[in-house]
Specification:
This is EVE domain-containing protein. It comes from Candidatus Odyssella acanthamoebae. It holds the Pfam family EVE. With about 140 residues, this protein is α+β, with helices and mostly antiparallel strands. It has a single domain (about 5-130), classed as Roll (ph1033 like fold). It has helices at about 15-20, 30-40, 95-100, 110, 125-130; strands spanning about 5-10, 25, 45-50, 55-70, 80-95, 120. A six-stranded mixed beta sheet has the order 2-5-4-3-1-6. β3 and β4 (about 55-70) form a beta hairpin. The protein is globular. The mean pLDDT is about 95.
């Protein structure tokens, strides 16, 4: 199993929306690096659900339930999407500011490439962020 972080603007698709609907298509990604990350996702992989823009914090966890397939909203045919399903809330949201204070998390793309919308998370970082959020990894 691999671990990921996926970002969304809460005004477009929020954690509340995800929890209510349970499953959604993760579409609209138009960055090649983020798209390549999505191509690497496998069914069962876990993702942190991150609100970008003003909130900049991880709120919960979703699971990949369908691997990469064509995104019908992409007129060029170059980009795809995955499906993700709600797993659980973090007991305590973990902010980007908190992550930046932890030396062990400085390797994360979230810190180094803050604009990337889909990024891998290594297992030790996953466990540490889960712990910060009040969850066991």
């Amino acid at each position: 199993m691999a671990y990921w972080l996926i970002k969304t603007e809460p005004s477009t698709w929020s954690w509340h929306d995800q929890k209510t609907k349970k499953m959604t298509h993760w579409d609209g990604v138009r960055n090649y690096q983020a798209s390549n990350n999505m191509k690497s996702m496998k069914v069962g992989d876990l993702c942190f659900f991150y609100h970008s823009v003003t909130e900049r914090r991880i709120l919960g966890i979703v699971r990949v339930t369908r691997e990469y397939y064509p995104d019908p909203t992409d007129e060029t045919g170059r980009f795809g999407m995955v499906d993700v399903s709600y797993v659980e809330d973090l007991l305590v949201p973990v902010s980007l500011d908190q992550i930046k204070l932890v030396p062990e998390l400085q390797n994360l793309a979230l810190v180094r490439q803050s604009r990337l919308s889909v990024m891998p998370v290594d297992e030790p970082s996953w466990k540490l962020i889960c712990q910060m959020g009040g969850k066991r990894a």
